Amino acid sequence: MGHHSCCNQQKVKRGLWSPEEDEKLIRYITTHGYGCWSEVPEKAGLQRCGKSCRLRWINYLRPDIRRGRFTPEEEKLIISLHGAVGNRWAHIASHLPGRTDNEIKNYWNSWIKKKIRKPSAAAAPPNISATSTDHQQSGQFFSYNANQIDLINQQDFAMKPQNIQDTLFTSPPLFMFDTSSSSSVLQGLAGDGSNADRMLPDHDQLFQETAGVLNSSIWPQMNQHHQDHQSTVLVQPASFTPGLDSINYLPPLIDNVENMVHIDHVQSCSNINNVEGEITTLDCLQRQELNQWVETTQQCPSYLFWDQTDDQGPLGGDESLPSSSSNMGAMLSYPSPL
DNA sequence: AAAGGTGGCAACCGCCTAAGG
DNA sequence: TCCTTAGGCGGTTGCCACCTT
User: Which residues form the HTH myb-type domain (predicted)?
Assistant: First the structure.
């Protein structure tokens, strides 16, 4: 044995498909359809197992396949959906016509994850080595610096979404999204040197406004989560937008200090423009204000959206990437209030 | 120029589930 | 109820082109 049960036949070819094999498979499927994949190899004259044929057809040969670079819209959708359902690639793919789960999975594993985890070197100090068990036991809320978040994203959010509930948080991470085309975000912030209008929106207001950002099919889930946990959403907008790189908004610095969440440069939505997810203006909430707010309201922020892109554009200027990637961020779910 | 490193991606592996006998 | 089989799915591997040194 040693091979998959469907591939135990003798002379089963493996590896990359040749153009001739592709042609045989296409010819057979287009004339006969694909009722039973296990019969396909023999009838099509292929030395492959049925499973391999199925995979080749679904992921590469079927006529409605959509190839080429993902559009910014697709990228947004993938990020949002992944935040909502985790690594359920088939589910995500079902929302992107012509895209396969394999393609989305590869896409995610290649540069999206890499982009998210990109360490914000300037803002991320040596991290705290609190374990997930510690978090579980404390029963309070927990926080991470960028490196830790990176670790969570890679190992827990992406790989084992089902475990996150058991180990780190009382609820799973729900959303990830970017703020692409949000130059107006920074424009709105850029001229704001005063604290005059730095008012923390109240709980419900903030929630409703964030609803505008996440106005999608996954929003009801967040709404429900909010109701269940009486949670609040805080947003950290993009820190970098091509052409506006002089604006230096640091990613959040989150320290885990005795039941207190410390966050640098947390910025909360004050105005959401439209359903496309564009944020037009934002109020800036500083660490002190956040802490004050936490104390006053006895609320723990349930979601944080931070920007991971303090670098110089998409993957150091790789122009093959969609520009919107420069503003990618992610949301974390924090445990419910105290 | 060559060797080693890296990333993208096609394909495979193993597990799960449903269906049918 | 158990066993077999096929299909579906997510994780992983390995090839290959490209990049770096």
Answer: 9-61, 62-116
